[in-house]
Amino acid sequence: MNEIMNEEVRLHANIQERQFFTRMSELYAIIKTTEHLEAARMSSSINDSDYASACHNLIGQFKDAEGLLRTNTTPGFPRDGGAFMDHYDMRCPLARERLITYGVPATVLHRRNDDQAFDAAAQALLCAETATGFVTAMDALRLDHRAMHELQPYISELTDKITSIPTLPAEFEPISKLKNWLIQLNQMRATDELDADQATQLLHDLEQSYNNFVKALEQMKQRK
Questions:
Q1: Predicted local confidence at residue 51, as pLDDT
Q2: pTM of the entire predicted model
Q3: What does the pLDDT read at residue 8?
Q4: Of 21, 90, 131, 182, which has the fewest CB atoms closer than 10 Å, so is most exposed?
Q5: Which residues form a coiled coil (predicted)?
């Protein structure tokens, strides 16, 4: 009996298993850290710039670790981040929303509240970058790019730019459309593709949003 009790309990049978469980412990830590980061943002304990930088890093690490989950063939073991959180009873609603539902920092989805003063030159640059973002995303679709990993970076960056323009209307429809597409893309795996109807709808929404954006800029000029 004593020999059995003193026998070392091995959690892994080989180096590959050890590496896998090390990555899973890292995934657990990423989720917990994200939960604390989101709580800090909500309590204004961190500024937008530091939050966005840390959140981008955590989201990237989460996606890498989640990709490893999908390669595991162990019966009953979770195959994605949401199932992993359920399996280990991780009650981290803020992290689940950020990492799984949205997949981008909150600063990308919400209008900025930084105390920075936007001078005319800074705003003009943001507007130009936003216009370029629209054109780039539309060109990608016209070139028949449909995979999540091809389109998501364009939509994410475009959403980030347009939400940074402080003089746009509070309820600007193009921002809502971009947010909805960003959420939809982030629900897909990297290699998943939009079907023909979805690609057509996204291109239509981008074209319409771009036209509305240009009109909004013209109206802002007229008010000056």
A1: 96
A2: 0.75
A3: 63
A4: 21
A5: none
Residue 85 has a pLDDT of 95
Closest alpha carbon to 213 in 126, 142, 122, 139: 126
Q: How confident is the model at residue 106 (pLDDT cuts 50, 70, 90)?
A: very high
Token pair recorded at residue 127? 């507007």
pLDDT tens-digit map of 137-179: 999 999 999 999 899 999 999 998 998 888 888 789 999 999 9
- DSSP letters, 107-160, are HHHS---------HHHHHHHHHHHHHHHHHHHHHHHTT--BHHHHHHHHHHHHH
Does residue 182 contact residue 104 with C-beta atoms inside 8 Å?
yes
How many other CB atoms sit within 10 Å of the CB of residue 68? 14
Q: Are 175 and 147 in contact (CB under 8 A)?
A: no
The stretch 81-101 carries a mean pLDDT of 94
Check residue 52 and report its DSSP letter. Answer: H
Amino acid at 224: K
- Measured between alpha carbons, how far is 38 from 96 in angstroms, rounded to an integer? 10
